[in-house]
Design goal:
The chain has no helices and 68 strands. A hairpin with a 5-residue loop joins strand 46 and strand 47. The chain starts with a strand and ends with a strand.
């Protein structure tokens, strides 16, 4: 005999093997007349599988009615009978009724990637109590990709002041790579959001500058440029097969002096062009992904090749100039470079600096004429024996009247092409066509004057383009050894410009702000103190347009800081009853905030920073005012005390760009001046940094990278209200700003930051830089705003500031590309 799990029935086995059910025990069959001559020992109760009564449901955490790429989906388990003890999730991307599993996903949350665009998403939840049953959710709406305006160009970023020569490639609408060089070596930047934000990657040692990059996929890229060996300039090529996580130097044949351009029609096949040591044309090729490069012999001319485009692994067109004849040059191959032939172009072409062939019957080359006017050539048979190249009509007005330096086409019937260049006055110009061919018509697009001269362009889709350029440095600026400063590099992208700040919609009842954090444009959290004497938490999932209140745990009276390591995980610090220190956290986007246990002896917690969803560091102090660093590595499950800072150091703000690298600013009472503490090993040891004289009371610090940090000074001296470190917080230099008192600073990249505060009259002020702090420009704020204290910039397209105005607290936002 065996009882049921709830004791309301039992099964009885008769001597002939028959099974009888009593009470609520269901009949499950019998042993089929098997005769028993001894008792059944260890017979287990039959397990009733779970039954689903309410299916699983999906929610877009960002609150979008139609899910978008980048959003997070959250799945419920549904409602089940028979008390399941565990659940598993299987996510699928669907086209109609056909669904395929989404690899690498098993939890209750899914971040949508471009692979799900154009599809619906569903989840299969399997419930288990010893037996298993599965249930499927209703599908989402079709996943969309957030659109970028196609005909509006806005400046995204300024980069290093002497980064004048750069190349750019976009293997997808969201993934782009840009290369160049400074006086300190080669520069490689990567973007995963269509050129809105960029992060640095490391080039191999000895590479001085990179002029061009080609990416046949989002993970495989090759870049070419110049290096230095034993004091001599040499051509170099570097490659990556993991999206830029590591770049490796490749071995080149002797005799190549300069490489200007590279094209990779496949992951294994690449062509690079430039000039040999004897000043003749140089072409190299690889068929094994850069492991070996071979020197080809093009048509012998004294000159240089500047750009190359390949329609497949065998057919390529390269352009440049013939130094002997002082004219532009086009050469082509149809047999993988075994033979190259010269092509006839108009005699008035002086130099060609860009080429793109979207198909074997469409090819565009751009440059300048012998009268220094812009040139666009088109050919419908660039790979034929006697190709014809025809000059196009460049729009008049503020078109590129001096030269066109770059062109990029999106294949189609016909192709869409974009060309960039510059005017005689040094400003940039962009022209486009939707009917690429010998009879193309070109239209002028609008670009900001601050873009300078545009050099090249990459367009992975008909709506997304990224261009590179350079601007003249401010008059009177100098670089090394008193030489005039070189041009500053710029990157522009097809997105809206935004330097005007407008008010967002927020609920009433907020007395004062404590902090703001954004893990992305659609995941922002602001905290402070409410008018009811309790802590206030607001969240926005639509780029700070609207804000929704969230509930803090009972007893938390105010919150002084918040940091979000992901769209779902945030940690906030503040005070509870009688001023006791409080740390609270959420792991579900703010649907539930819970109190967390902190070590004894902590009197107050002033700020927190979370470089990831699980790792957070909080600045605290004991009853004697000594600084304490609290650390959690499990999302707030446990907090441990970390010591090692000087006993005379009192911290005011902290920034941790990675889990290992942290910078703390504050006051050193041994010298009664500003000081910093720097750790590069997760807080195990600390090194004290040095501030310049006159910097007395650091307020807020922001570190957009492990090298670059900005900090404000609360002493109100306009000449030193902002300082910058370029060595990870060890040494600091004052920056001149057009503001009387700055108290907060936030950065979306090493070059794009905003600082907030007030003027001497008490009016709110926001100043911004897009050139790594070299210059700061006042932004337009609401006239009633005052004491703009805090800011967060989740991307160069969005910044949010917290302020007090004539009616209470306020939120100011800016949209567009850069502060």
């Amino acid at each position: 005999m065996a009882p049921t799990t709830d004791g309301g029935g039992y099964w009885l086995v008769a001597s002939d093997g028959g099974i009888f059910a009593y009470g609520d025990a269901p009949f499950e069959g019998s042993t089929g007349g098997m005769s028993l001559n001894r008792p059944i020992v260890g017979m287990a109760a039959l397990v009733i599988p779970p039954a689903n009564t309410v299916p699983p449901a999906l929610t877009d955490v960002q609150g979008h009615g139609t899910p978008q790429v980048g959003d997070t989906l959250s799945a419920t388990t549904g409602t089940w009978t028979e008390a399941p003890s565990s659940f598993t999730h299987l996510w699928g991307a669907c086209t109609g009724a056909s669904c395929t599993p989404i690899n690498g996903t098993s939890g209750s949350h899914l971040v949508l990637t471009p692979a799900q665009a154009g599809k619906t998403v569903r989840v299969v939840v399997t419930a288990s109590n010893g037996a298993q049953t599965s249930a499927v959710s209703a599908p989402t709406g079709t996943v969309t990709t957030p659109a970028l305006p196609a005909a509006s160009w806005g400046q995204v970023d300024h980069y290093f002041a002497d980064w004048a020569s750069i190349g750019v490639a976009c293997p997808s609408a969201s993934d782009c790579f840009a290369v160049g060089g400074t006086a300190y070596g080669a520069v490689i930047l990567a973007s995963t959001d269509g050129g809105s934000t960029w992060s640095s990657q490391s080039a191999p040692a000895g590479v001085a500058t990179l002029a061009s990059v080609a990416c046949p996929s989002t993970t495989v890229c090759t870049a070419v440029g110049l290096g230095v060996s034993l004091g001599t300039a040499i051509a170099v090529a570097v490659g990556t097969t993991n999206g830029g996580t590591t770049w490796t130097a490749e071995t080149l044949p002797a005799g190549v002096g300069v490489l200007q351009s590279v094209a990779c029609p496949s992951a294994l096949d690449c062509y690079a062009v430039g000039q040999s040591n004897s000043s003749v044309l140089a072409v190299m090729s690889t068929t094994d992904g850069g492991t070996t490069w071979n020197l080809q012999v093009p048509v012998i001319n004294a000159g240089q090749l500047i750009s190359i485009s390949c329609t497949d692994t065998a057919d390529c067109v390269a352009v440049g100039f013939d130094r002997d004849k002082n004219v532009g040059l086009v050469i082509a191959t149809t047999d993988s470079g075994a033979h190259w032939h010269s092509e006839t172009i108009p005699a008035t072409v002086l130099e060609l600096s860009g080429v793109d062939c979207p198909s074997a019957t469409e090819c565009l080359a751009v440059g300048s004429s012998t009268t220094y006017t812009a040139v666009i050539l088109a050919s419908a048979n660039p790979l034929a024996g006697s190709p014809t190249w025809t000059a196009q009509t460049v729009p008049s007005g503020s078109s590129p009247d001096t030269a066109v330096s770059g062109v990029s086409c999106v294949p189609g019937t016909p192709a869409d092409c974009t060309a960039v260049g510059n005017n005689a006055n040094g400003t940039s110009a962009v022209v486009t066509t939707t009917n690429a061919g010998v009879s193309s018509t070109w239209s002028l697009q609008s670009v900001p004057a601050s873009s300078g001269q545009l050099i090249g362009v990459a367009c992975p889709s008909t709506t997304v383009c990224v261009s590179r350029g350079e601007t003249a440095p401010p008059p009177g600026t100098f670089s090394f050894f008193g030489n005039p400063a070189p041009p500053a590099a710029t990157i522009v992208a097809t997105a809206n410009s935004g330097t005007t700040w407008t008010a967002g919609t927020l609920p009433s009842g907020i007395d004062s702000w404590g902090g703001i954090s954004c893990s992305g444009p659609n995941a922002c959290t602001a905290v402070g103190t409410g008018s009811n004497g309790a802590a206030a938490i607001l969240a926005s999932t639509n780029q700070a347009v609207t804000w929704t209140p969230q509930a803090a745990p009972a007893g938390v009276t105010s919150l002084a800081g918040v940091s979000c390591g992901s769209a779902l995980a945030c940690t906030a610090v503040g005070q509870g009853p009688a001023g006791a220190a409080e740390i609270i956290g959420t792991s579900n986007g703010g649907a539930l905030w819970s109190g967390e246990t902190i070590p004894g002896g902590v009197a107050s917690v002033s700020s927190v920073t979370c470089p990831s969803a699980n790792r957070c560091d909080a600045l605290a102090s004991d009853s004697n005012g000594n600084t304490i660093l609290l650390t959690t590595a499990n999302g707030g499950g446990t907090w441990t005390e970390n010591t090692g800072m000087g006993t005379t150091f009192q911290a005011s703000s902290m920034a941790c760009p990675t889990a290992n690298d942290c910078v703390v600013v504050g006051i050193d009472f041994s010298s009664f001046g500003g000081a910093s503490e720097v750790s590069t090993n997760g807080g195990a040891t600390w090194t004290e940094g040095t501030f310049g004289s006159g910097f007395d009371f650091p307020g807020t610090v922001a570190c957009p990278s492990t090298e670059v940090c900005f900090a404000t000074d609360l002493n109100g001296l306009s000449s030193s209200s902002l300082v910058q470190s370029t060595d990870g917080g060890l040494t600091w230099n004052s920056l001149a700003t057009p503001a009387d008192s700055l108290v907060g600073v936030a950065c979306s990249s090493s070059s794009d930051c905003v600082a907030t505060g007030s003027t001497a009259s008490g009016a709110g002020v926001i100043v911004a830089t897009t050139d790594s702090g070299f210059s700061w420009t006042p932004e337009t704020t609401l006239s009633a705003s005052s004491n703009v204290a805090l800011a967060a910039c989740p991307s160069t397209a969005l910044c949010i500031a917290l302020s007090n105005d004539s009616t209470g607290t306020g939120i100011l936002t800016t949209g567009g590309t850069g502060p």
